[in-house]
Design goal:
- The protein contains two helices and no strands.
- The protein has a domain of about 90 residues.
- About 80% of the residues lie in helices and about 0% in strands.
- It is rod-shaped and about 115 Å long.
- It has about 140 residues and is an all-alpha fold.
- It holds the Pfam family Phasin_2.
């Protein structure tokens, strides 16, 4: 079966690709290689950006969690001290005065703690967004 009807035989008439087709194909391959290189560089850059974002977010979350634990300890201590003082009062009026004072102090403390936690969250969000802004500035320069 090595006759002229066998498309895989060497007796098939050789086909020559015209020079224009060859140049067009080579140009396409060259452009594909350039596009791939750009895509690869962008992907590597974005991987670095994602790592920086997660690292920054992790640091911010750790700081936030540590502050929450600090506040929980302080609030628990304040509550236990209040309870001890409450057991030592002699009259309902003293208990009410102690309760009112403690409630006012705790409300002020909670407000200060909430403000501090909001500041930490804001700093963490800003720090996490910084690598994204830097990466976007590289890819999309400002319009002139």
């Amino acid at each position: 079966m090595t006759g002229a009807t066998d498309p895989f035989s060497s007796s098939v008439i050789p086909f020559e690709v015209p020079e224009q087709m060859r140049a067009f194909a080579e140009k396409g391959v060259s452009q594909a290689r350039e596009s791939y290189a750009k895509f690869k560089d962008a992907a590597e850059s974005h991987n670095g950006t994602v790592e920086a974002v997660f690292s920054s977010a992790h640091k911010g979350a750790s700081e936030y969690a540590a502050k929450v634990m600090e506040f929980m300890k302080a609030n628990t201590t304040a509550q236990l001290e209040f309870t001890q003082e409450l057991f030592s009062v002699k009259s309902p009026q003293d208990a009410f005065a102690l309760w009112t004072g403690h409630s006012k102090t705790q409300l002020e403390t909670f407000q200060a703690q909430a403000k501090e936690l909001a500041e930490i969250a804001q700093r963490a969000a800003t720090a996490a967004a910084e690598p994204i802004k830097a990466s976007a500035a590289k890819l999309y320069p400002p319009a002139a």
